[in-house]
Amino acid sequence: MQSNAALEYDYSLAKKFTFLTILFGFLGMLIGTIIAAQMAFPELNYLLGEYGTFSRLRPLHTNTVVFGFTVSAIFATWFYIGQRVLKVSMAESKFLMVVGNIQFWLYFVGALIATVSLLLGISSGKEYAQYEWWVDLVVVVIWVLWGVGIMGLIGIRREKALYISVWYFLACFLGIAMLYLFNNMSIPTYFATEGLGAITHSVSMYSGTNDALVQWWYGHNAVAFGFTVPIVGMIYYFLPKESGQAIYSYKLSLLSFWGLMFVYLWAGSHHLLWSTVPDWMQTMGSAFSVVLILPSWGSAINMLLTMKGEWNQLTENPLIKFMVLASTFYMLSTIEGPIQAIKSVNAIAHFTDWIPGHVHDGVLGWVTFMIMASLFHMAPRMFKREIYSRKLMETQFWLQTTAVVLYFTSMWIAGITQGMMWRAVDEYGNLMYSFIDTVNVLHPYYTIRALAGVMYLIGFIMFAYNMYKTMTSAKEITEEPQFRTPMA
């Protein structure tokens, strides 16, 4: 049997998806920065006509970040991690290489078509599920191809035990497959009317409250199985590899995994508090959201305790900074969400800017930080070159950390201010403030958010430049580093 050191891994697919991760990350964050600026300065809505308005760009932003940037990163890290923890090379199976390359090209072309469709206003109008039925079919094929690749690699593995990261990637595949299929069931309107619009559009198979329930069962768990589960899988691999420390508790990792699988699935109805959804279902969503703190913090604490006795690495290795801060933001986001799911808090928070504040401290601070750290760790091992600039990485870290803090604090203040102003009444029971009063009060916080977006985008451009220079002109290395990533 080949030893792990003797194996020559095939990183061709990991490299391709790394390129897409950087491309979609830049596009998604650029559009996000533009729409943040539009909230502060509404005249920016009219620079590009109807195609540059907030309503057209916002779905582009969310879908590019979710299905472009994050999913590309999931694929890139799987084709890297999967080979190494299973001790088998993709090159050993021509079938898996063919399947992987079909997956890549179908994904790339499909992503471009899907993006253009949203820009043209072809949308189902459902959050995180705006793609129409014909795009959904392509998504399903891509996902099935990835599943074939995962199962195929597991089938020819040399390592008998499945490391915890593989569990999380399997959960990502199975969870999103189930959720996407059920929520996106629709009927093309071609069967009712004629014309191009009838071909490209559809209506949901669900209606009314049922549609809302299925949508947010999907919507919240798209975050669970896209922004949480695979990212936890990444950190369970990359933090021990980068730090040289064994995971603090393997048992805790398994308890957290099964807790997350069971609890997360039933928390989605907290998006529908104070609506026409049955009260027992609202209460269930709130209860499961609060319980969700346990498995979420279980994983995060496991990561932080992995660094026990080695905290000096925070000052020596910027990649450890990224990963530790990512874990910290994960803890922050997964206590904030349950707090917002408590009915009395939700009465103030819902529909306010506190909600996007919560989403973005998770996505920017946890998901994106961990993805960038993962790609930084992978780059020297895939391209046989050291990281181009440690100083640039340090600067990026502090710039983006400042940006995230500015973003979520401005949105916290704006959201709570909104909620309180909407509920304020005078001695006669009349509303004290009009909607436009709240808009005027919030303008400074929208400006701060736009500034934070610009800062974070600049940090991502630094990351992309550092990665590009690493791939093309950094100092070559002769031996693969076992732990700490070499950098200039």
Automatic annotation (TrEMBL):
It catalyses: 4 Fe(II)-[cytochrome c] + O2 + 8 H(+)(in) = 4 Fe(III)-[cytochrome c] + 2 H2O + 4 H(+)(out). It is an enzyme of class 7 (translocase). Its EC number is 7.1.1.9. Pfam families: COX1 (PF00115). Gene3D superfamilies: Cytochrome c oxidase-like, subunit I domain. Residues 17-488 form the Cytochrome oxidase subunit I profile domain. It is a multi-pass membrane protein. It is found in: Cell membrane. The chain crosses the membrane at residues 17-40, 60-81, 102-122, 134-154, 161-182, 216-239, 246-267, 287-307, 319-342, 362-383, 404-425, 445-465. This is cytochrome-c oxidase.
